[in-house]
Write a structure and sequence with these properties.
Largest sheet of chain A: none
Mean pLDDT of chain A: 85
Low-confidence stretches of chain B: 1-10
Shape of chain A: elongated
Order of helices and strands of chain B: EEEHEEHEHHHEHEHEEHEHEEHEH
Number of helices of chain B: 11
Strand content of chain A: under 5%
Distance between the termini of chain A: 23 Å
Shape of chain B: elongated
Order of helices and strands of chain A: HHHHHHHHHHHH
Bound molecules: adenosine-5'-triphosphate, magnesium ion
Radius of gyration of chain B: 24 Å
Largest sheet of chain B: 6 strands, mixed
Number of domains of chain A: 1
Helix content of chain A: over 70%
Number of strands of chain B: 14
CATH class of the largest domain in chain B: Alpha Beta
Helix content of chain B: 25-40%
Oligomer: heterodimer
CATH superfamily of the largest domain in chain B: P-loop containing nucleotide triphosphate hydrolases
CATH topology of the largest domain in chain B: Rossmann fold
Chain lengths: 250, 318
Amino acid sequence: MDRAFQFNSRRIKAIMIKELRDFRRNRFVIVTMMLLPIIFILAPLISIFSIKAGVLSPQIQTRIGISLFYMLLIPAIVPTVISAYSVVGEKEQGTLEPILITPISREEFLIGKALAAVVPAVAVAYFVFGIFLLATSLFASAQIHSVIFNGPRLLIQFVYTPLIAGWSIWACLAISSRTNDVRVAQQLSTLASLPPLLIVVLFATDVISPTIKYAIYFAILLLLINLAGWKLVSRLFNEERLITGSTRNG
Amino acid sequence: MLTQTESESNHNGDYALSVENLSKNFGQRTAFKNISFKVAYGEIFGFLGPNGAGKTTTVRTLGTLLKPTSGQAFVGGIKLNESNSQKIRSVISIMPENPGLYGRLSIQENLECFGELYRLADPKEKIAQSLKAVNLFDRRNDLCRSLSKGLKQRVGLARSLLNNPKILFLDEPSSGLDPVATKEVQELILNLKSKGITVFLTTHRLEEAEKLCDKVAIINTELKLIGKTDEIRSQLFNSTVELKTVHPIENTVELLDNNPDINSWTNSESTYLLQVGTPSTMIPKIVNLLVENNVEILAIGELRHSLEDIYLKTVENG
Ligand SMILES: Nc1ncnc2c1ncn2[C@@H]1O[C@H](COP(=O)(O)OP(=O)(O)OP(=O)(O)O)[C@@H](O)[C@H]1O
Ligand SMILES: [Mg+2]
């Protein structure tokens, strides 16, 4: 089982590129990538702009917090939707055997796959958040502006986005390496992607006060969870099982 | 049965493949057991057996994808174990039964991915070369999901040539192909041999093995038989001589029954099948005897047994 850990960026890039090329021609992935951001930008914008100018009550703070949280669903959900196909699709097409017979290590293979899902998801999430910030700085009242353009909140939004996407992808890879059904993989991993969002909800609802200190603590926690997820997936990635479970008549 | 079991030391650089008492179990189920054989460099080695005989599992085990349960093997002179699997992978290629292409990627893109995984020095050139070797260069921009089975097989072959393997495992490369596509693949395989590549070929097609292989093994969980195709024929069967005469032979007791050179015989009308020891020396003697006795001979010759006879006989005898 334990093979020397090795890491070659050329191989990782090769896996990433072939995944992205595959996504590009997958109508389901394209539609998802276009629809989800639209859905996830509309609700927060409507919510923010329907706040009446005037007093800033704690409820309004919460409402803004929830809107920001809502946009963090993008890094949670997008990677699972696009990469549930990842391992299951490889099994269905019988592509794992030729891949694994090359000198690629399982770490390289998994990282390539993870990056191929995380990079577009984070890009979409940042893009949506960028639009949101632009819209609020142009059109929102000064009070709302001051709540959103606040150090800890911005930190949470930017730093947690890749961390949440990372968690989500490990959950998805772990699940899809153990099932042969794309739909099951998708549903289970969407569910599994949600727990880290709990931290964000606690910030949004001021159960944990959104200070820089706490934001960093929980970022570190998420990072550790990511590392654990990565270890777990590497462990679950059993070549023998993936290959012999892959074809019907051998 | 005839198996090669001479034990050797840890050095087996002389053989492309050297396998000793190799076994693989999946839990309680035995995929193959106590298999031993040797394949010289540059040979085409045919690995024959019925469904479920363990052919694919053998390929995967020798290809470092599965861990053997017991026994040992050398692949390209390198001992088969986990710490050597990278080394072994760099000298072999496997074309699985299902070519396993990314359907949404073009032929070129599929090969580009593998060219990078092998870290080729000049991927562009090597990919073009591999595609030309299988006559697919003009179709390199087609998406793989739109290809026919035969074309997919050829893409798989092109892909397995990318790393200049010394040993190439082909798992039923012509299964499901029409006669024309089969012939093309077979020509490609012979072409590989002429380039000095050792080919390990599993197949259901006996005439294919007979046509392509220098050596064949028949397995059914255990190795039933191994040898050069010609040698196997004479080991397993008496040679059969077919004799056609103008009129049925009248004096069969004297000419056939009491003839010490003929072990047994059968006939239908004036066509006779004679079981003899070595046809090359027996045929002239038989001809002389018949001519002396005024039997008019239309034709006489050795009947070659097809591998199929051997295969069925071996598999049926368990
Ligand atoms: N992952 C597995 N778990 C349990 N049994 C397996 C597994 N893979 C293969 N087998 C069994 O091992 C035996 C050999 O299978 P294998 O696929 O090697 O046969 P094969 O000779 O390639 O057959 P075919 O001609 O149908 O391709 C079969 O009985 C098969 O059911
Ligand atoms: Mg098979």
